[in-house]
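Researcher: Next sequence.
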Amino acid sequence: MPRAGLNPERVVDVAAELVDEVGHDGLTLAAIAERAGVAVPSLYKHVGGIDDVYARLAVRTVRQLGRVLADAVDGAAPPVALRRLATAYRGYARSHPGRYAATLRAPAPDDAEHLAASQEVLATVLGVLGGYGLDGDDTIDAARFVRSTLHGFVALEAAGGFGLPRGVDRSFTRIGDALDHALSTWA
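Model: Next structure:
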């Protein structure tokens, strides 16, 4: 009989809390079981193993990031929308480093739930890019440009890669300015 209060959603709740503490690669079924107060075999009543946990965590975190981004840009036009998007992206990565790592992998073509969650994020990003007059293939290229720029910054920041004495926040503001300039001249 399943432990009272434990279900697939609760397992992912525990994994989400834990992954921010131990990192994406440090998440294990043993750690989840210990935090949940159960034996590892008990988890298999609710999830199919660590790969299943990672898949469920990815869907949840992509949805969560999507809501954060959509709320941040709601009603704003460029360049304000872009700056809000960038700030929200960075904020999410800083507040939830393990969960953020779960958002990086593209969904498998047969994972409808992950694809749908990713489309929500993409719709927000494309909406911001549309404010710059971009459409078609230009928006895909620009979306990749924005994501890789923001990810590069937050990954270096998280790893302690900015050791120079100048303030990191100022550099992030300048990146926002550069993104705005690049997107304004993209087409």
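Model: The radius of gyration is 18 Å. The chain has nine helices and no strands.
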